[in-house]
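Allow me, if you will, to draw on your knowledge of protein folds for a short while. A protein sequence and the structure tokens that stand for its backbone fold form the material at issue. I would ask you to consider whether the tokens describe a fold that such a sequence might reasonably adopt. Thank you for your consideration; the sequence and its tokens are set out here:
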Amino acid sequence: MDALLDVERSATYAPMEQQFSAHAEQTRALEMCNQAYRLHRDGRIAEAIELYRESITLHPTPEAHTFLGWAYSSLGRYRAAIAECLRAIKLDPHYGNPYNDIGVYLMELRRFDVAEYWFHRALAAPRYATPHYAHYNLGRLYERQGDWIGAIGEYYAALMMEPSYHPAALALLNLQAKLN
């Protein structure tokens, strides 16, 4: 009888133990990702990359892949950055940040024709907390292509969403001054 109870207990508690273990791994991965982000912001890119990778190994998230891509871009490794963003999109196609970042990296690779598509994908993403970035980046793209009206419209759109976004305000002022 005791053996039967032990089997029942282990069957009951095993999923809970697995759940706690998975939660602990997720928590640790998030802590590592946050630490990597701080290192990244401090300019310690190689250390940040290592921690982002460890975080992803423990528990992959679209955010960690996107931040790893950003770290690669800091080193000029745009193709590796794009690959990480594509991994992020595969994990969560509704997360807007990697779409915008791919557009930025493609602009750095002078692939303006394709970059626009990715900015529009970012703007269409249901989970995107900073769409003013995509509008600003579209403005930069249009300005590089000589589409002044399109650029002004995107800079305005960025400022309508985030009035204190200084890069868009400065870009708009500079472009208006250039046109006068």
User: Anything to note?
Assistant: Residues 2 and 47 are 52 Å apart (CA to CA). The chain is about 80% helix and 0% strand.
